User: Fold these one by one.
Assistant:
Number 1:
Amino acid sequence: MDVYNFPYQHYLKNELPEEMQKLADAATAATELAYAPYSKFKVGASVLMSDGTILSGANQENASYPIGVCAERAVLAGIHVSEDYKVKAIAVTFTSDAPVGDNPIAPCGMCRQSILEMQHRQDSPIAIYMCGPGGKVIMIEDAEFLLPFSFGSKDLPSFKPQV
Ligand code: THU
């Protein structure tokens, strides 16, 4: 039997390099952009681009529930990657009025697919910083690790890279 393993690291936010603390702080600030009147669960996601730019997004819910967009896909939707403009890392966190604890939040399955597509598009790894509101962080250095046996462009004969 084959076994799937992948590396990840636990941190406290203040142990991260300054650039990554800034990224985690941006994700926390982005929770204020959330429109989450149904779940009351405000998610913020921020990406660090290869030129040092930080971009942010937040979950946007809808009375027709499946229409809602997660924070990770909200931020990724505004990015066009190229040879010299790539996503280096994404940080995600949340705030909630409910007592939900301090555990880092992980991207949902649909967002894992989207992050991985972006990684394949730019052909370089995206690190994922999963953050809790009290400072706990789990870091995974490659989006591939979070979605083993993924479906992707390799499976679609009609795929042609877009330039
Ligand atoms: N949500 C995100 O924005 N990102 C995730 O990775 C997990 C879930 C949002 C979707 C919904 O608006 C709320 O959190 C509760 O599920």
Number 2:
Amino acid sequence: MLIVQKFGGTSVGDLDRIQKVAERVARTVAEGHKVVVVASAMAGQTDSLLEMAHRLHGNPPARELDLLLSSGERVTVALLAMALNARGVPAQAFTGRQVGIETDALHTRARIERISGERLKVALDQGITPVVAGFQGISPGSDVTTLGRGGSDLTAVAVAAALRADRCDIFTDVDGVYTADPRIVSNARRLERVTFEEMLELASLGAKVLQTRSVLFAMRHGVPVQVLSSFTDGPGTLVTKEDAAMEQVAVSGVTYDRNQAKVTIVDVPDHPGVAALIFGALGEAGILIDMIIQNISHAGSTDISFTVPRADLARVREVTGKIRVDDKPLDVTVADRIAKVSAVGVGMRSHTGVASQMFKTLADEEINIQMISTSEIKISCVIDERYTELAVRALHDAFGLGTAAGAPAGPAA
Ligand code: ADP
Ligand code: ASP
Ligand code: MG
């Protein structure tokens, strides 16, 4: 079999752990499989590079930022390839550019457009295990790009798709996808299987165990993905197509996202074209809008609230600051101490009462709901950030997601 094995930041966090990873890869190769390894930067490395950049520049040039951030992954792949060679497993480290990961030019959030993978095929044919730097590619103008936070997952899935690998195994510091973040819900339960659609919602609503775009890519290209622990041997979680059994439970998981902010524009003239103007400008600036609420209008004007990633707030201010409606600037206020809590499950299509259960649970905890949004398989509520953990735990209990009392669960690390 051809297997892509991706190791996250904690899994390659120091030399001992890199040795453990090398041991695992060597074991898979010894079993007769061909392996392509993808690795992240050491845990905390990307954050500390980002912090250094921000100490030198309030808004670091994205091109330079990408060159800087891509260095973390180069360190780990070179070390890992050395560790493999030392064990007698011929291995070669590669940057994104070297294996032909071509992206667009959107620095810090580039999209993969093509993977030639030529050098990977050549290496594999020669019995060499390639170790690929995650999170990075090359723009049409030959500049280094990065694929957004958590982007090594995307590298792994995209490489698996390009090589038509039999499996893409994502090794991390938890032994699978849980019903909620095991760091805050102690009785969270590992899911044996989760559908691509659920995983997509879980990831985009805050469960960072898999990067959202990697799930989308896997879904589109039918890449079989498994989430496994780097530290233990267990069955992990299989991300798979939906089957009838999976609809039997209404809610599969509860997530939270503290990285959002709520923007309110007050007293906007209420006539056709205004929303199109505002959201058109935000869209052109590449800002992802999530929930939108428009109030009932009073005396010809209305309030519009929406949520955006907190990291985009400066750009939201910049873009909205330039907009004029009826020759007047917009009156924009921002609330960044909010969190979005969500319940996700394909079973919601066939079960009723999930929304009311969610609202009642939050009400019982006296948590006020500021915004609500729903799709076929998820319900999200924006609440005060202070109540995030309380809300997640209460919802997890209310939907009966926990393990039986006393059964241990949680991160393996
Ligand atoms: P890596 O560095 O291996 O890519 P990440 O830190 O990106 O790992 O993702 C793993 C983390 O995701 C876990 O440590 C866990 O705290 C968090 N997490 C959040 N929600 C979930 C969930 N539903 N199931 C499992 N892990 C989750
Ligand atoms: N090192 C990058 C990050 O921290 C990419 C990754 O780990 O997947 O976001
Ligand atoms: Mg990750």
